[in-house]
Amino acid sequence: RGSSFTYFSPHHQMAAARGGHPGGPMLPHFPPLQLQQQHQQQPVPPAPQPAVPSPQPFSRNPFAQGVNDVVLVHAPGSPVVSVMRAPQPPPPPPSTSSREVAPLIVLDASNIAMRHGGVTQKKFSVRGLQIVIEHFQGQGHRVVAFLPEYLSKFKEVGEAKRLVAMGMGSASKVPDDVKLLQQLIEKGSVVVTPPQDYDDSYCIGYAQRHDGCIVTNDMYRDWVEKVSPDNRLKAKQWTKTHLISYTWVQDEFVPNPDFQWPPPWTGGEIK
Q1: Can you give the CATH number for the domain in which 175 is found?
Q2: Going by C-beta distance under 8 Å and a sequence separation of 6 or more, which residues neighbour residue 257?
Q3: Residue 24: partners with Cβ closer than 8 Å, 6 or more residues away
Q4: What pTM, to 2 d.p., does this model score?
């Protein structure tokens, strides 16, 4: 009868797990509190993010021009497409012949009116002068026509007409419509010059002072000869670049198609 041991059957072990009473409910098993807290405090590593490649140019809008030029940009593998303004080239350097506004147009009124009146008829056509005024005004030009004052007076024109009928006068002094001419003067499109003065000098001087061009078929050689010898070459060059020749096709005014606007004139009046 020496030592003895107590044998616990599986039935007793299960009873102990149920609170010591066989057949009782089994108690839930909880992990140690300290381990559970440590498990909760461990940070969750963030999910890895896929690398996004840098945007690459996709295509250029073939219909865009100038400042509205755009580029469609997308990242490979991404459905997102963004619109970006394409880099614009630097503006070209300013041209010496560039003009911000339409140049002044000076009209040699007598030259234009007589040319429209016809080579054979020799008639001063006021309507032809009006056509040229409206032509350049429609293109945004300021237009000034110079004309001797006596051509706008009914009395002087009547006397000149009688002389022409007698074969003693000049048709260039007989406008065919004085009333229309006076209307153009009232509008400021035609400026009269003193009857004793040389009206071409007014055309040339005004055009040079205000950076304008003259519509005429006159080469103004007599004016060039009156210029001082030191400026004569300059005067010849100015007439080559600032005189707009023309012709008529019935009532259609046709300026010289080869004429090119000269650079802005800063030389003032040539004397």
Answers
A1: 3.40.50.11980
A2: none
A3: 15, 18
A4: 0.64
